From TrEMBL:
Species whose genome carries this gene: Castanea mollissima (Chinese chestnut)
Name under which the protein is recorded: FAS1 domain-containing protein
Domain spans labelled FAS1: 25-158
Assigned GO CC terms: plasma membrane; side of membrane
Extent of the signal sequence: 1-25
Entry keyword set: Cell membrane, Glycoprotein, GPI-anchor, Lipoprotein, Membrane, Proteoglycan, Signal
InterPro entries: FAS1_dom_sf, FAS1_domain, Plant_FLA
PANTHER family on file: FASCICLIN-LIKE ARABINOGALACTAN PROTEIN, FASCICLIN-LIKE ARABINOGALACTAN PROTEIN 14
Function according to Swiss-Prot or TrEMBL: May be a cell surface adhesion protein.
Family, as annotated: Belongs to the fasciclin-like AGP family.
Topological relation to the membrane, as annotated: Lipid-anchor; GPI-anchor
Amino acid sequence: MMNSRTTSLLIFAFFVLVSSSVTTAFHITKILRKYPEFSTYNHYLIKTDLQSQIDRQPNITILAVDNKAISSISEKPLNVIKNILSLHVLHDYYDIEKLVKVLTSKTAIFTTLYQTNNGDPVSLKGFLEASMVNEGEIAIGSAVLGSGLTVKLVKPVLSHPDTISVLQITAPIIAPGIGASSPVKVPDPDN
């Protein structure tokens, strides 16, 4: 017969085993397939393999850009597009209600997938800043000093409470330094 301590340890071990094997219940590319206005955005999530990183997150907010707006970055190299789009993935669940609550009377800074992958916390390159402007509009931009809040929230697209939220924004957010590809070094003929 097991004592209560042994039973408690077995229950705890079972709980840890079950909780560690739980995966997310969403697949961002399957979700976005239902919205043809985001087909190019979805295409880039697949081409850059960001969808696999997004799908592994326990709770997340995607700032999606429609086909017309995303065309402004379509000529950039794929690695730059990946960096730009990883800045559009917030590490937490924010629907409109939660955003408004967070932003009431203050500006907030949000951590993104870009920060997790390659950000520099000193320059704030991998963070986004948001604030309420003009009677209830939400403005978003890079948190890098002097970048400005140049993008607006358009509307909620999808929300699964506490798991995933997809919000449409007006344009891609490009932090200074991630919107251009690395310059190619040309050998100096004099050296």
